TrEMBL record:
This is Mariner Mos1 transposase. GO terms for molecular function: nucleic acid binding. InterPro entries: RNaseH_sf, Transposase-MT_Hybrid. PANTHER family: MARINER MOS1 TRANSPOSASE-LIKE PROTEIN. It comes from Araneus ventricosus (Orbweaver spider).
Length: 189
């Protein structure tokens, strides 16, 4: 059980073997000589993404260095999934002769059910989350009407009353479109 790359949790071992949690913990540690380690997180990047990150990281660092990071508002949207993890464990048990390099990286599996949330963070605080309607295609018009306008109306002035912030977003098509860029320029953001 404990030798698998995705072992069951100690709680599920307790149920399956009908013993106490202390027995499972003792057997793993002393009898099997296994130690519990958290798997390293691993985000899969394709070669194109690696190249883009290499090109953009140094100029972004130069923008953020010294105290200039205090004026940045970083925005992004993310999926929050409400379903199970397909029994993938974040821990793995290694015997004493094995090295941490033998750990299988923990990767996330895409899920179908979730909710998309847009937020930003800055040195002056965070905004309230804006939820994207289920099944909506985020194009420039939706992004401007349902995300940027409420953000500029409610949160931008609260976080930076003088309006001297640098608005940073990723290069998603709805963010990088001419319409969105023109809207942000017109709003003096």
């Amino acid at each position: 059980m404990a030798s698998k790359p995705d072992p069951p949790t100690q709680a599920s071992m307790v149920k399956a073997l009908n013993v106490s949690q202390q027995v499972v913990s003792y057997q793993l540690k002393h009898t099997l000589k296994k130690k519990c380690h958290r798997k390293p997180k691993c985000h899969h990047l394709n070669e194109r993404s690696v190249q883009i990150k290499r090109q953009r990281s140094w100029p972004l660092y130069k923008l953020l260095r010294k105290d200039r990071w205090r004026k940045f508002i970083i925005t992004d949207e993310a999926w929050i999934y409400l379903s199970d993890t397909n029994a993938k464990s974040k821990v793995q048990y290694l015997s004493r002769d094995q090295n941490r390099r033998d750990l299988t990286p923990s990767t996330t599996v895409p899920h179908s059910k979730g909710v998309m949330v847009w937020m930003d963070i800055s040195a002056n605080g965070v905004t309230k989350p804006l939820f994207v309607q289920h099944g909506t295609k985020i194009n420039s018009e939706y992004y401007i009407q349902k995300i940027l306008k409420p953000f500029l109306k409610d949160d931008y002035c609260r976080l930076y009353p003088i309006g001297d912030a640098v608005f940073h977003q990723d290069s998603a098509p709805s963010h990088a479109s001419r319409i969105t860029e023109k809207f942000l320029t017109d709003q003096q953001v």
